[in-house]
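Inputs:
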Amino acid sequence: MPEMVKIDEEISGMEKRGYWKDIFVRGRGNSRSPRFLLVAEAENHIQGFIFGEIRAWEFGEPPCGWVFAIQIRPKMRLQGIGTHLFAALCDAFRHAGVTKVRTIMARDNHLVLSFFRSQGLMAGPFIELEMTFDENV
Amino acid sequence: MKLQKASSFALFAVLELAANRARQLSGVEIAEKYGISAHHLAKVLRDLGRAGIVDGARGVGGGYRLIANPKRLTLLDVIQVFEPVAAHAGATKSSKTATDAESALRMILDELDDHTVATFRSITISTMLKLMARKPWTRLARLSRSARTVVARA
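Outputs:
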């Protein structure tokens, strides 16, 4: 986990040890939402990772694979690591019996948005909505 | 949403050139394949040349080739040569002069523009070529046909 926290910090500029620890703990304890963590190693270090989970009946939809994190060290990009990780995660999802993969990300995250588009993901049936409380109370 | 003719022609040309990087293609060849005006396409190709996306060579054996990197060149890069994509962005009246209805409507239109820009910016020419090779619309058409059959049987 420490290497993944470092990769995330390198990319996001924020240290989120508590968040990742929570992800690991939850991932070990809940068999109804199988989770997959795949890592890419080189030079005895983790260079990238992908996290996915099968979520059932979220938003009323049948079980489906969700990708909720993919991070590749900037110096290791453009070598196909993300593509390999994503393909391996999709294989794991297929093996677990689901036929669809989804993700969600910031609209202005051009890099990751382009990556998922290049893997063949298209707009799904959902629209994300939000509200800031203090503007509407 | 609908693209202007020039934008569509430009995308056809760029996709065609990206799919045939080993050789140069003439404007006429591209126009014939898509059944579009060769005259209009020639103007579009000149604009793409000025934008640094394609390069054209005159004379026998001449033609156009893609000089931009298809893994980096996005739909937005091409379309923006011919038309503004976020039609409403930057057009906001100052909050002092706009009515509440205008401001509320502007907010919704900006929301749509943001999605449009994000979509066009996230799709590269390489991704489009992959999409064209996969042809997901044929599967969607099959699904739609079987759904109609089920409804008809019911």
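Remarks. Chain A has a mean pLDDT of 87. Chain A is about 40% helix and 25% strand.
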